[in-house]
Amino acid sequence: MAEPLVTVICPTYNRSAMLQCALRSVLNQDFPDFELRVMGDGCTDDSERMVAALADPRIVWFNFPRNTGSQSEPNNEGLRRARGRYVAFIGHDDLWFPWHLSRLVKHIQSTDADLVHDLVASVGTEGIEGVYGPPHERSGYTRVYFPTSSWLHRRELPHEVGFWRKPDELSWAIDYDFSRRVAEAGKKISFLQSLGVLKFHSQVWKCYALKGEPPEKWWLDEILQKPDQLKDRVLIELATLCAPHFQAQDKKPLGLAWDEATFGATMAVRATIRDVLALYGLNRWPVGDLLRARMKRLRLRQRSIRGLPPA
Fold this sequence. Notes:
Blueprint: E1 6-12, H1 16-27, E2 34-40, H2 47-54, E3 59-63, H3 72-81, E4 86-89, E5 95-96, H4 100-111, E6 115-124, E7 127-132, E8 151-154, H5 157-161, H6 174-184, E9 189-199, H7 202-205, H8 216-225, H9 227-246, H10 254-280, H11 287-306
Parallel strand pairs: 1-2, 1-4, 2-3, 6-9
Antiparallel strand pairs: 4-8, 5-9, 6-7, 6-8
Helix pairs in contact: 1-2, 1-8, 8-9
């Protein structure tokens, strides 16, 4: 069998209804030259039967004998099995627009970048609630999170910067850790000005604990039937959300001006603390131990919210 140009990795655990939506958005791509590796993290539901029912030879199912506790191992196993020249990821609760892969492939080839990504719209219970894109030019990619579902990178990249690390080793999220190491290694990261992904944060939706039809279903139907119209709607909602941040000359009431000043001061204090800790060394004692303990508490709390088994 000829090697595909792209390997798509989708880690999943016991949420077949959401997974089906994500996989259908991948199979709907206008770029057909990919393999789709669905990496079950000890799934015990009907995910395997659902994947088989899609009856697409590009899909390869793998399931760990037991849950590993994070996306690190499913992603790493997917990377070890990947045959494509490039690797993309999709969360089992996220959706792609049809042009996501084709535009990223063209972009990574034209820029000779190591990792590329496109624009991600975050979907909340009331509609579009936020956006992920490139960092501020004064910050750089070592200090910004951009969702894994928007990535496309060279297959060799993990061999050069290291594979996904275990969460207990880290003071921050595992996906941020990987992109941060890519940036720190001096690899080229390039942003494509194209909306390609809809992200459904499980902490917002509590999707992992939901029964019945997932919220992604309506959005998937729109993507399949009228993707351009949906894209325009999402971009208009994002522009509407962002508009107040650019209206600096507005005659603001005192209460709003005070709230904004208080928020700005809080962010400045937090940035100062982060910079001081970074100068000291995030892995030095006692900072490293404290940050890892804090991150472990957050992970355990999120697993409970998501309905996942204890780590």
